[in-house]
Design brief:
With 398 residues, the protein is an alpha/beta fold. Helix content is 35%, strand content 14%. It has helices at 43-54, 86-98, 128-132, 160-179, 194-199, 214-231, 254-266, 297-306, 321-329, 340-344, 348-357, 366-384, and strands at residues 14-16, 19-21, 25-27, 59-66, 78-79, 102-108, 141-142, 156-157, 184-189, 237-243, 271-275, 311-315, 335-338. The termini are far apart. The structure holds flavin mononucleotide (FMN). Keywords: Flavoprotein, FMN, NADP, Oxidoreductase. Its cofactor is FMN.
Length: 398
């Protein structure tokens, strides 16, 4: 029997473990630098993320949220290192769920790329000017005592006891995330932060069982996954954001990623979320592909083709509904993640549904959708009467 192809893959629901997302649009985690040293989520986070859920995205992922204070990037980051931080995040997760989307949260340890400025303050290490504003730097940690770039701190190399304690922090934060009601726990394993720093030979020069061979460099992130899986319910999905390659001589490669991803999937990771680069602070030194449309699609495609099972997400200048649909139809990925496009238009997913399926406004919250249906009729009548928004003014002198 021939089963008809779905009219839209983008709007075909996706079931992973205990949840079903209504579509394959994922809000890519985006730091808002909107908290304070408490690391607590506030109304800004609720409204910003709530807009994406009301806008129809199937999976809404909260920004990189630190597992301990020194694991933050900036003073304004969210944290989940204490039980007090659960309640405001639970409020956000509940609101996202109430709109039919699946709530997720990204956990991070910034490692040697911590203690930095917000983008609009320079995106570099904290300076005297920042200290004068009350943003004092904190000591950073990493696999080896190698600074990520000129002017940045030299991190303290973690001992084996530090690593063991750090693994527990990930598991504790994941347990809190599940308690807060998040169905997806996304690990920030990319962009040079601690998990990535252990993988990459550029930042990991260790000579113990956590450095040297590929198996040794993978050891710490794999220990994190094992501990996390044991700490959260089976119904929770784990997504892993990976820099598929460093794009630098002597760095982490696509071939390394395939080996690593097989190990991740074997330990209960559900989705490989493909990004790239960031091994060092100076982005001009990496030679990844040009930042064109869907710029990570070649990497997600390579992961998808090279892995047996598991789902793959892609991100990077996905801006158009037909493009997003083509990413999925061509086999480049199973999930599309959007970042800046959703900042520009939080209702992007609803608009995409109109473009791809031509439906009415049933998918919008009825507080808007009911009126938007009526608006279509009102505008059509004016169009039939030959009127435009400028009709009243067209004869006015300039
Ligand atoms: C404001 C902003 C904050 C970001 N914060 C994070 C983050 O917390 N975690 C992460 O993995 N990526 C972060 N990114 C990267 C995005 O998730 C995304 O991968 C990138 O912007 C490319 O996708 P786009 O072209 O759709 O924006 C951030 C990007 C932006 C624009």
């Amino acid at each position: 029997m021939n089963v008809a192809a779905p009219a839209s893959l983008l709007f075909t629901p996706l079931t992973i473990r205990g949840f079903t997302a209504p579509n394959r649009v994922m809000v890519s985690p985006m730091q808002q630098y909107a908290s304070d040293d408490s690391g607590l989520a506030n109304d800004f986070h609720l409204v910003q993320l709530g807009r994406f859920a009301m806008g129809g995205a199937g999976m809404v992922i909260v920004e990189a949220t630190a597992i301990e204070p020194i694991g933050r990037m900036s003073h304004m980051d969210l944290g989940l290192w204490s039980d007090e931080q659960i309640a405001p995040l639970a409020r956000i997760a509940a609101f996202i769920s109430s709109q039919g989307a699946v709530p997720g949260i990204q956990l991070v340890h910034a490692g040697r790329k911590g203690s930095m400025q917000a983008p609009w303050d320079g995106m570099g290490p904290l300076t005297e000017a920042d200290i004068a504003r009350g943003e004092a730097p904190w000591p950073t940690i990493g696999p080896s005592a190698i600074s990520p770039g000129q002017g940045w701190q030299v991190p303290e190399a973690m001992s084996e006891a530090d690593i063991a304690a750090n693994v527990t922090l990930w598991a504790d934060a994941a347990r809190r995330a599940a308690q807060a009601g998040f169905g997806i726990i996304d690990l920030h394993g990319a962009h040079g932060y601690l998990l990535h720093a252990f993988l990459s030979p550029i930042s990991n020069h260790r000579t113990d069982s956590y450095g040297g061979s590929l198996a040794n460099r993978m050891r710490y992130p794999l220990e994190v996954i094992t501990a996390m899986r044991a700490a959260i319910p089976d119904a929770c999905a784990i997504f892993y954001r990976l820099s598929v390659l460093d794009g630098m001589a002597g760095g982490w490669t696509e071939a390394d990623s395939l080996i690593f991803c097989r190990e991740l999937l074997a330990r209960g990771v559900d989705v490989i979320d493909c990004s790239s680069g960031g091994a060092v602070s100076d982005r001009s030194t990496d030679t990844r592909v040009r930042r064109g449309y869907a710029f990570h699609a070649p990497y997600s495609r390579a992961m998808r083709q090279g892995l047996d099972g598991g789902l793959v997400a892609t991100v990077g200048l996905i801006v158009d509904p037909h493009q997003a649909e083509a990413v999925l139809r061509s086999g480049d990925a199973d999930i599309v993640a959007l970042g800046r496009e959703l900042l520009a238009d939080p209702n992007w997913t609803h608009h995409a549904r109109h473009v791809l399926l031509g439906e009415g406004y049933d998918d919008w919250p009825q507080q808007a959708g009911w009126w938007l249906d009526k608006r279509v009729g009102a505008l059509r009548k004016l169009q039939e009467a030959g009127e435009t928004p400028m009709t009243r003014y067209q004869d006015s002198p300039a």
